[in-house]
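Translate sequence into structure tokens.
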Amino acid sequence: MQSLNLSPVDQILNATSNKFDAEPDGCDALVIPTNAIAYGKPAFRVTDDEILLLNADGSVWDNYDMPEDGDVVAYIENLLSSIGL
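Result follows.
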């Protein structure tokens, strides 16, 4: 179970997930799907305020608000599943 007392970035960086790995990037966290189809490229950037869906070149494609329940890890896992990762 993830600690909802952590910031969104810290939730991602401290997550134990079979769907993604995470790397710090400045004050943000990059979400890297473990699915081979993602080619090891970040799919999301998580800030303390929003979740950004990234293009293959790292530019922002879309953004999402933080989940109301505060569980950023579960939300990211659901987003990854919804896009086939």
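Note: The first strand starts at residue 20 and ends at 25.
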